[in-house]
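Extended Data, panel c. Modelled sequence:
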Amino acid sequence: MVAAILGPTATGKSRIALEIAPSLGAEIVSVDSMQVYSGMDIGTAKPDPGARRLVPHHMLDVVDAATDFSVAQFQRQARKAVEDILSRGRIALLVGGTGLYFEAVVNEVVFPPGSGDDDLRKRLQREFETDQHAFKERLARVDPAFAAGEGYANPRRVVRAMEVYERTGMPFSVFQDRREAQAPHYHHCGVVLDAPRQALYRAIEKRVDEMFESGLVHEVRELAQGSGLSRTARQGLGYKEVLAYLDSGISLEDTINNIKRRSRNYAKRQLTWFRRIPGLCWMELDEDDLSGPSPRIVGEIRDYLRGELRDGGRAGRQGLGTPPGGSGRMI
């Protein structure tokens, strides 16, 4: 059985995990889609070397930022890390805000084949850029279920969906449906951190300001001038906007505001994703907890996870821990 501390950006997941992990006998496995890239430290709020010396961390700095890294690759490597932790009698504590990456580890998720044919992807990308409307109409004919969903508005997902269809002859939505129906790979217990919206937004904006004060522009410039950023890495929150600032002359003030706006929207999507995952307990933080978690909050989360791990997660498997507004449990 594995444990988890999840939640939107700026809720202090890493700080709480660092305090709790020693008392649980746990090692931390990051479930963050961007912390896998080496050199992307400031913009991903990656735990610093001091934190990593205190508690072993896994799935950080897995690949160079110039390398594409898919969720399927993450799934394989993260599960190896979990198996290694469990084999040594330790607890795997999954920490992060990327709901898909968390589910990829703990559920029997089957992903569509990755691209083994760069020429195919490049051809489809050119076709999409030449006539997006015709491309999307063609995709809608072969995969109407995907065309009816949110992913249809995302250009990268549209190209990926057509790539999967051309490689397999199967609609991309078939793989999505399978993902939603998968059984657990690991039984798990977990806490989702939440906070009042305006307090959360203030914490997000403060974090963005701190990232620029810590040298985010310099970090992105060094990466761009070095080996570069891969197609996936350059979409990272903050990195995409700073690259645009460096390339197109957008003002720094507009860049910062764009990142703040995108971060707020991303937090909403994170919470929406976590609400769909059954068996998680939700913890509402006070605004003061967003600056530094109180001993009370840390103790409640620690005691809850310890009890679930001891009892085999029976409460979680009974559907407790649903989000606010549901019929489940909050702690």
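Residues 2-109+183-317 form a domain with the Rossmann fold fold (CATH 3.40.50.300). This feature is highlighted in the accompanying rendering.
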